[in-house]
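Students often ask why we bother encoding 3D structure as a string. The short answer is that it lets us treat folding as translation between two languages. Here is a chain of 125 residues written in the first language.
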Amino acid sequence: QVQLEESGGGLVQSGGSLTLSCAASGVIYSSYVIAWFRQAPGKEREFVASVSWRNYKRTYTDSVKGRFTIFRDAAENTVSLQMNNLKPEDTAVYYCAADVSPDSSPAAISAYEYWGQGTQVTVSS
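And here it is in the second language, the structure alphabet:
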């Protein structure tokens, strides 16, 4: 059992930065993949970025490459998402998710068994 709790959302102007944090309670095994997804109003939830707990492999969706960085702190059991040069289209609820038996693409939403409650990010133009 893994519990995830996001924090760090808020309101920021276009071009600004935010760092989201996902705190995981319970045992995080090396096989896990932790990811960030987001869901904008009226849209489906979409993959943003992921990190493998074992080998630190990181994957990003194209729209955030060069602007967002995902990193983990194994000692603290946290995964953070540093978001720079934010755009209005980044406005969404951001969710942290854990895949405890990864055997498919890290972008596949169906692969993730555990989810946090989400944190709102609003980027004003």
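Translate back mentally: The first strand starts at residue 3 and ends at 7. Keep this in mind for the problem set.
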